[in-house]
UniProtKB/TrEMBL annotation:
Gene3D superfamilies: 2.40.128.20. InterPro entries: Calycin, Lipocalin_ApoD, Lipocalin_Blc-like_dom, Lipocalin_CS, Lipocln_cytosolic_FA-bd_dom. It holds the Pfam family Lipocalin_2. Keywords: Signal. This is Lipocalin family protein. Residues 36-181 form the Lipocalin/cytosolic fatty-acid binding domain. SUPFAM superfamilies: Lipocalins.
Amino acid sequence: MRLLRPVAPALLLLGLSFFTACRALPEDPPATVESVDLNRYTGLWHELARLPVFFQKDNERATAEYVMNDAGNIDLVNTAIAPDGSQRSVTGTAVPVAGSNNAKLKVSIDNFFAQIFGSPPDYGNYWILKLESDYSIALVGSPNRKTLWLLAKTPEIPASKLQAYIAYAETLGYEVSELIINNGH
């Protein structure tokens, strides 16, 4: 218990900083797709690229499994996979933001920080920026451009398609030079 005392203020400050940074909508938020059919969006997604995030190690890859629930929201399981094959998962819920045609979701993860700091802002923290017409590839980011994921229903996509999505993210103002690429892993 004594070891947690010096760490607790740092964790609280980190969580508070994250919460505060997510509260303000930027003046020029990125454009999203026009609409999303959540039934088609559900399924298993593989992370092909992402900006670094504090909750996932740089050498980990991830999957996200989305399932529609009876309330019309999405239950999710995000799993980080280490190079040695070990896994750790978190669960949560994605709720469509009113008026966004399901292109913006408010994702809440069932963890310690979410319980303390509450759910994300009303404009959502998971914006679908680009989506293949067959729902096989999606580019997802936060409106403040701090997080970005390239997801696909397969573990790998052609390099030309990967580069096209990265180029599109750059036009939206995301810092693509920092992307961690997992295509094919």
